[in-house]
């Protein structure tokens, strides 16, 4: 029977890439995320048609615990379980810590960290019943190292790495693995949106942000491909990866090797 994957924040960027790769691998898919209804429906219909799987969309807001729980309950009711849970939704804000807007701090912690707790706790009972599950948390190189002006994001991603390890230990004998993927810079709408912010905060041009800030620490001097991150997620979701659990895996062109 086909497995079912729920990917938070899959209307754009890395999440959309992971959703497509899992659909290609034969999973039914629950998409989630913000965006224009027409574009989301076009993505949903295209994935279903091109890959011959059942693709649904759930618009739960990852800042709202009750909506998150209801999303997972709907998926379990429709498909029997969320076999592959990918916690990918994420937002960013760049500012000095003493100027960091309080409501941005709260939102980043909610979307980038707490939403993974809310999806995980709701998805685990059906995974346990089936004796099989895969949880893939999309963290960041910023789960392992810091950069200035990203205090909320770095705190949330370090927290997500710790959460990953803790849950991995709790479910280690239940056929469920829990891992975190830590990408370096991937050129997505989230990164594009940071370029003007960073240029303003640092008083440099947008091109200098790309070359001197973003790719400065990435020894390969190229952005990581969405397809590369998606391929790692598909591998972690496979049977072959059953002994990889509690891992916090960089895919960062060497950034965190330094
Ligand atoms: P993106 O902005 O393209 O996508 C983010 C997704 O999250 C979108 O689908 C958006 O709708 C969704 N989202 C945001 N707020 C939400 C909310 N309240 N409720 C539901 N969905 C919400 O960004 P991306 O670059 O594809 O980032 C995806 C993940 O990868 C994030 O967790 C990010 O931190 C992580 N990441 C990105 C990079 C990078 O360089 N792009 C590097 C490392 C880690």
How would you write the strand order of the largest sheet?
3-2-1-4-5-6-7
Strand content is 5-15%
Which structural class matches the secondary elements?
A: alpha/beta
Small molecules bound in the structure, each named once: nicotinamide-adenine-dinucleotide
The beta-strand count equals 7
Task: State the domain count.
Answer: 1
Q: How can the largest sheet be summarized?
A: 7 strands, parallel
Shape: globular
Mean pLDDT: 97
Unreliable stretches covering 5 or more consecutive residues: none
CATH architectural grouping: 3-Layer(aba) Sandwich
In the CATH hierarchy, what is the superfamily?
NAD(P)-binding Rossmann-like Domain
Fold-level CATH name = Rossmann fold
Measured between the Cα atoms of the first and last residue, the distance is 44 Å
Compressed to H and E, one letter per element, the order equals EHEHEHEHEHEHHHE
- The CATH class is Alpha Beta
